[in-house]
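Attaching the record inline, Q. Sequence:
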Amino acid sequence: MTDPLQTAARDALPLTTPRLIVRDFVGDDWFAVHAYAADPEVSRYMDWGPNSTSETRAYVERVLVAQQEKPRRDFDLAITMRAHDRLIGGCGIHVSNPQIREGWIGYVLSRDCWGQGYASEAARALLSFGFGPLGLHRIFATCDSRNLASARVLEKIGMRREGRLHEHKWQKGEWRDSLLYAILEYEMRD
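Structure, as predicted:
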């Protein structure tokens, strides 16, 4: 028996916005992914990176395997420019608790694409995908408390700050605080 939500999710990809196409990664994307994943400034607030070539290739391979899972709960997606199909970053939505219809989002962009609204555009598309085809009720996101640009993106797309998780992660040799943001399905419709 086919899960109607899984069929709707599969049929909804790729996601299109005015300037972007958000699509499944393909094997040949690893080189473009590595261009941003190896950048220490891009990975500064992430719990990964800067990546070696083998780490980036392994990431893309894991993503390709996850695309085949049934039911699919992890949607790691490539952010590409509509105008010239250039891969500029990655984003994802993950169904963390299907019983209560909860998921989380994340995103990362090449440094040369910062400050141009691409993260907000991609993140908005993820929310629409989550509340639409995936049928989620609540979507949350966390960001390093020092990553003010990411916090602004989450606020810009309508997520509300629910709190601060103190010393939430041990990353790159230090304890880090995270800011927690969330939005509910009916808040997206308002």
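Helices lie at 4-12, 30-37, 53-66, 118-131, 148-156, 185-189. The chain has one domain: 4-189.

More tomorrow.
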